[in-house]
Amino acid sequence: MEKSRLYELFRRWAEKLGWWALSVPIFVKILGIGLLTTVLFGTVAFYQIRMGMLRTHYQIHGEAALSLATSLAGRLEPLVESTNSSGMNVEVNRTMGEFPDVRYIVVQNAQSDILSHGFTFPKEAPADLLGNDGDLCAACHAALSPMEIPVDLLETSPNAELSSGRLRAYARHEGLILEVTVPIGSGRLGAVRLGVGDKIIAREMGSITRSLAISLTLCMVVGLSLAGFLASVLARPIRDLVQATQRLREGDFAVRAKVFSLDEIGHLAEAFNRMAEGLGTYRQAVEEKEAARQMLIGKIVRAQEEERKHVARELHDQLGQMLSKTLLTVDSACSSCENRQTQCAEISSDIRAMIDEVRLLAWNVRPSILDDYGLNRALEQYIGETAKRVGFALDYQSVIPPGAERFASPEVEATLYRIAQEAITNIIRHANATQASVILMCRESEIVLLVEDNGAGFDMKKGESPRALGLMGMRERTALVGGELKIDSEYGKGTTVRVRIPLKSGEALGLQTGLENDGY
User: Fold this and answer.
1) SS3 208
2) What are the residues whose beta carbons fall under 8 Å from the beta carbon of 124, sequence distance 6 or more?
3) Where are the domains of the chain?
4) H/E element, 61
5) Domain 23-207 falls in which CATH fold?
6) Is the pLDDT confidence value at 136 over 80?
7) What fold, for 388-517?
8) 197, containing H or E segment
9) Looking at residue 339, what is its pLDDT?
10) How confident is the model at residue 132 (pLDDT cuts 50, 70, 90)?
11) Are 327 and 352 in contact (CB under 8 A)?
């Protein structure tokens, strides 16, 4: 169970790391690939070249030591046969003097006894030449101090093979010692053991290493420069294309991406430009159709309002007057009738009810107060009359400049009145609210209408049915006067309808001044 949790945790971290690596900019990706490739190639090449050069140098160095030891063994053969120790010391010292890289030379007989090592003690001789309880050649030297015994000389595997003779390698703190063993007189007289150090090799390898490091550094700089140039060449058109896409998303259909080349990115930029051109043409066509639709809807709404006004006037002036005349005639006839019938009072009452219904119908079709006194008085009377007929608390509030009864054009006033009327109708039919309010605010540059209720509300994401047609009409009316309508609703939390209509500069003041001149 613990292993599965660790595996799942590791997998999630690996996915996050992979997603982060894939999410870095393209410039960083290309530069990182170039850097990784250059460093990896440079490291491998540096290691291979250095190891090859090192093996070659050790091979050459070992062959040189073998040649020197073979020559010395030939010169020492008669001296060993005659047991000429001083002559052997002279040859050993002369060889060490002529070749400074030689660290020690030891001449042994067939029984591995030391015959000569020169006139000086070879402090770098290997440990197997120590004898007599830690003394080297105790017969001709005093006892050795602990500092003179080469305890830091460790045998290691040689990196070269010689054409003949025997090769051994010793590692010291100061470097490596190669020892070659060459027989004297076919081995019957003994052998010469010659050890050479690698100071010359180290010096040469240091120089070669510095040259390689400088060369590889230059190659890395050139590689990274080329990678950076390639990254900028690839990232610049992509960045320009992204910026063009952002501007296109914001509605700038005139934007065009620069075509830097004719590669795949260039073809993508050309396709984007064609798409932007097509979208611009489509948007222009849509705007023309929308303008025509708005103009048509505006004409329909204005014609509807004019027809409403005409119908309301006809209802009030014609039908209302006729009913009033009929009422007077009935009342006059009933009062002069000798045998007054009981139905006379009922007829009079019914005619009065019909007159009230006609007046209410005329008011609903087009309130005359809206044309005569403006939106504020019309809403105040409409909300007051409606509050008497509904079963919930309904109030109206207005925040307008003092004395400004008319603060917008008749078209704007009619639009706001119809929206408030439609919103109140929706509340009565669908909201099941216990409280609702209508607020009208006139500011310096805009008019704001708020209609709120604490009713059932509805889900905006699932559509607005059965209120869809009403809300759609409200949006259309708002758009006709250049306004903005926003509806906030949620199940169980009521609905808020917010209408904001901007006013043209000086519109409210001009209307107010005109009304003052007309005596309002």
Assistant:
1) helix
2) 103, 104, 150, 153, 172, 177, 195, 197
3) 23-207, 388-517
4) helix 26-81
5) Beta-Lactamase (3.30.450)
6) no
7) Heat Shock Protein 90 (3.30.565)
8) strand 190-197
9) 60
10) very low
11) yes
